[in-house]
Write a structure and sequence with these properties.
- Pfam families: Peptidase_M48.
- It is a multi-pass membrane protein.
- This is Protease HtpX homolog.
- With 301 residues, this protein is mainly α.
- It has one domain (9-294).
- It contains 12 helices and 4 strands, in the order αααβαβββαααααααα.
- It has helices at residues 9-37, 40-56, 58-65, 77-90, 123-128, 131-146, 149-176, 182-225, 228-242, 247-253, 270-275, 281-294; strands at 68-70, 96-100, 107-110, 118-122.
- It has a 4-stranded mixed beta sheet with strand order 1-2-4-3, with helices on both faces.
- A hairpin with a 7-residue loop joins strand 3 and strand 4 (118-122).
- Helix 1 runs parallel beside helix 7.
- The longest helix has 44 residues, at 182-225.
Length: 301
């Protein structure tokens, strides 16, 4: 069932292209591992098992890693109330609602489809935002579910995770594997090189998709709520407060940057912007200003 979130053909095209290119890279990666490791069954079983686990249990993995837990309407009446109103407006199924006990102000959506989606917000976000700002953030996350890009980014992230695991395995095998002949050492070195290349390619493809999908979610949320200024206010407030979060807490959350409303990094540096999963704050605010102009300044009250 199609929701009332504004469709984005550009996002759909980019998701299809990204999945196609990542599929090619994935096939080439598995083929290279089979040739190098000479173990067809082992490689296929491990790769299929990891992909299946990430796809089917992505919501549980994300909630566990972010210390999140599902909450009932009795436990979080305001949060559920906002989600209920937005889902009714968007004409879409209500996802499960969760809260993460973290001071880091953020939110994310996860799950393989709309029927198995979870919207999670941190206690730090709930404490900092006004109701209209929270509505904008939740509309942003619900649009990810409606556009189905949550499942796409989950699958897309898998290849980088797998390549990273292989690099670590090969590295520690060389480091602690005891005495090895030159052929074995050469094979492990080639496995590391191929895995590093695959990680770099998947990293670039995911970054390109992730940045566009955040702008698409901002636009869809602003058009659904009719309040781009509330979303802009939430972006400004959250981005400013992220900069004051201890570095240790930011590092813990950085693995989930591609899913977050705003990335768990300190903004402002050219290097951070280059490798960020999100557009810069300035770019997102400019896009919301353009939407406000399209609405003629007549935001809904």
């Amino acid at each position: 069932m199609r929701s009332r979130f504004e469709p984005d053909r550009g996002l759909t095209a980019r998701m299809a292209l990204t999945m196609f290119l990542l599929g090619l890279v994935y096939v080439a990666f598995v083929a290279a591992l089979i040739v190098l490791l000479e173990s067809l069954v082992l490689v296929i079983v491990i790769a299929a098992g990891l992909l299946g686990a990430q796809y089917w249990f992505s919501d549980r993995i994300a909630l566990y890693a972010m210390r999140g837990h599902l909450v009932t309407p009795e436990q979080q009446p305001q949060l559920h109330g906002v989600v209920d109103r937005l889902c009714a407006t968007a004409d879409m199924p209500k996802p499960r609602v969760a809260v993460s006990d973290m001071d880091l102000p953020n939110a994310f959506a996860t799950g393989r489809n709309a029927d198995h989606a979870v919207i999670c917000v941190t206690t730090g976000l709930l404490r900092r935002l006004e109701t209209e700002e929270l509505e904008g953030v939740l509309a942003h996350e619900l649009s990810h579910v409606a556009h189905r890009d949550v499942a796409v980014i989950t699958i897309a992230s898998f290849l980088g995770v797998l390549a990273g695991l292989v690099v670590r395995f090969a590295f520690y095998s060389q480091l602690f594997g005891g005495r090895r002949d030159q052929n074995t050492a050469a094979v492990l070195a080639m496995v590391m090189a191929v895995s590093a290349l695959v990680y770099a390619l998947s990293f670039l493809l995911i970054r390109a998709l992730s940045r566009y999908r955040e702008l698409a979610a901002d636009r869809a949320a602003a058009m659904l709520t009719g309040k781009p200024s509330a979303l802009a206010s939430a972006l400004t407030k959250v981005s400013g407060d992220v900069a004051r979060i201890p570095t240790r807490d930011l590092r813990t959350a950085q693995a989930f940057n591609a899913f977050f409303f705003t990335p768990a990094i300190r903004p402002g540096t050219a290097v951070a912007n280059m490798f960020s999963t999100h557009p810069t704050l300035q770019r997102r605010l400019e896009a919301l200003e353009e939407i406000a102009a399209q609405l003629g300044g007549g935001e809904r009250r």
